[in-house]
Amino acid sequence: MLRFLVVGFAAVALLVVGVAAAIGSWAWWLLLALLAGLVATGIYDLVQRRHSVLRNYPVLGHLRYLLESLRPELQQYFIERNFDGRPFDRDTRTVIYERAKGIHGELSFGTERDIEVVGYEYLVHSTLPVPQPEQPPRVLIGGPDCTQPYSMSLLNVSAMSFGALSANALQALNRGAALGGFAHDTGEGGLTPYHLSGGGDLVWEIGSGYFGTRTDDGRFDPAQFAEKVSHDQIKAVSLKLSQGAKPGVGGVLPAAKVSAEIARYRGVPQGEKCVSPAWHSAFSTPREMVQFVAEMRNLANGKPVGIKLCVGSRVDVLAMCKAMIAEGTAPDFIIVDGAEGGTAAAPLEYEDHVGLPLTDGLMTVHNALVGTGLRDRIKIGASGKVAAGNDIVKRLIQGADYTNAARAMMMAIGCIQAQRCHTNTCPVGVATQDPKRTRALDVADKSVRVQRYHASTVAQAMQLMASLGVSDPAQLSPYMLRKKVTATVVRSYAELYEWLEPGQLLDDPPLNWRTDWQLADPDSFRPA
Q1: Is 522 within 8 Å of 287 (Cβ atoms)?
Q2: What is the rounded distance in angstroms from the CA atom of residue 398 to the CA atom of residue 302?
Q3: pTM of this prediction?
């Protein structure tokens, strides 16, 4: 409302100055011209739909774009000091924004990374690249117990709840998913009309709070789940065990964001901080978890059901695998969330000091499934700072079948990483429930940006694979990803990491895995 009052006040001032100019000196005409320009700019900013910053901050918002246009150094300083905590590098941010806007997204003057630094990773191109496929491949999600498998894109919208994101943000993401033919994960905050409004495919995430499918005392409600999961747009269900940015602690929605609407969709009290438990009440052992997954798949009439976790202990992962073997059933997919993943609110100690990075977690899960003979029936998704085509290819090489992105998708709909997510004062209407701020996010415009970003990024992933000499993800090899481990030594992922053979853990566990395999108990989640 304040922005309308400011523009209105400027319009009144314009009238007053106009009168003064008519009866006064020529100097008044200069002031009149200046005020007329400001008022015209303010009105345009309020009614245009392309720039959320300008819709919320008419006239003043132009300062941001002015500073960005001056010099790369000043642009980087301004963005990183004022908008980013743990940002993507400048090149990545630029590519995301430009792809979303339909700009080609290429950069000049070469890399900004120090390619001589220890730890630098790169993909190995082929001397004889192959033609890029006309259509990117898709991944069929669904094991032998699944009767309604789903064809998943190589890149999808990662889990973000209503409450963490605004209604307009979710509608833009879902409509973009529908336009681009990829999946949209609901996050654990419940299934809402905003997730369903765009017609996009949904992965319904169920966390330990069972929001949207809970009894009055906070337990899982099978009847409510069965009713909602039958919706045609819900293509799969993800049971969230833990989240990358805050593994071992429940999700948090600050009290300021728990509106009457959010409280209704989640089944929680309005105006109180909403904290999901750190553990599930529906199970307490790996075996019970596998049984619960099977129950959910039965209630979902055979739709794919998987789990999402940030890996902490290899023992836990192996215990889950043993439980799957013992029960004769398994999840249809496992989403591995890296510790570098983002969140709207979490203690700093958890963000920086708990959980495995995506590379280590992903390869742990992949090798555990291969070594126990389960890999063929379980697909693996990877999430955690996935933004560009090289991220997709890298994660596929490390064992994933597909990827999910959250931060990049938020940036495609206008996020400037202002780090105000937990305060309900997001300046561009992405991560807020304030209706005065969410109006800035135009759903029709931003949904097209999501579709553009997705299409361009997947296309770049396919072009990269073609440059590596492969036309299908199945042809990727760990030899194609290499790391500089010392100033003079480079090793491929095939050399750096141990890659298990199918069924190897069952037949003769290698020495490096033997102790963890012996400790793993299908009837106990025990500390490592």
Answers
A1: yes
A2: 29
A3: 0.84
